Amino acid sequence: MRKEVRVGSKVIGDGHPCFIIAEVGINHNGDVKMAKELIDIAVMTGCDAVKFQKRTVDVVYTAEELSKDRPSVFGTTNGDLKRGLEFGFAQYEEINNYCKQKNIIWLASCWDEASVDFMERFNPPCYKISSASLTDDNLLRHTKAKNRPILLSTGMSSMAQIEHAVDILGTDNLVIYHCTSTYPSDQAELNLSVINTFREKFDCPIGFSGHERGVTPSILAAGFGANSVERHITIDRTLWGSDHAASLEPNGLFRMVRDIRQIPVMMGDGVKHVYKSELPIIEKLRRVK
Questions:
Q1: Taking a C-beta distance cutoff of 8 angstroms, is the pair 211, 229 a contact?
Q2: Which of 68, 89, 160, 232 is deepest in the core (most CB within 10 A)?
Q3: Are 4 and 19 in contact (CB under 8 A)?
Q4: Which helix (H) or strand (E) is 219 found in, with range?
Q5: Is the pTM of this model over 0.90?
Q6: Looking at the 3D structure of the chain, how many domains does it have?
Q7: What distance lies between CA 90 and its chain's CA centroid?
Q8: pLDDT of 52-100, one tens digit each?
């Protein structure tokens, strides 16, 4: 039997409902009120968890990158934007309490060691390693040392790089997500068959982290055996910000969750049946019974 991973009250693995993560990420645009609205959307549509992102801006980005011109509501530079999008302890404490009130799991992808230590204050059920951080061996080791389940995204990574990361993390309490790190992703580059490749290669649950337009690829991913699906969510795809265009609005998220939940019923048991509902049709249509 393949390994399973418990995240809070949920289990990720074969034979369990697909674990659906609504990624808020930075789509809250620095506003806790908007973050709560996105949490409400995740709860209303039946998602299992919401995910945020945490960075120590001056560690993750170079001074050159932060000084680049990038006008926003927070200022004129990229650094102004990045710092404006980061929540501190008070904001995350409010989010933590709100998610408890709404009975939904919340987690974060941490882009540096200090951010992992920051999130430890909230006793998270797991950590997410972003695709951008897959090659950061020190961050992988630091995260693993917290002895919590790890969800690993694999966008913009070769198989050799993924294998190296898995060697560090081990396959106990690990979920590996197939991912293409373009926003939004071109359909020709989604390569959903990698899900089966991962399932054959790694003895742990396999997921899909999608950035595509629409919902069909994420539903197909669950049909291919993805134990977890993660999608960015937004109130409105036309809002300012880098991730909104590759996110699902409430109606799209509802349809995706609804259809993923129906997959086990539609897949059936693999045994060819003549259903009772077909018997009247036999009487009506068959000459030879």
A1: no
A2: 232
A3: no
A4: helix 216-223
A5: yes
A6: 1
A7: 24
A8: 999 999 999 999 999 999 999 999 999 999 999 999 999 999 999 999 9
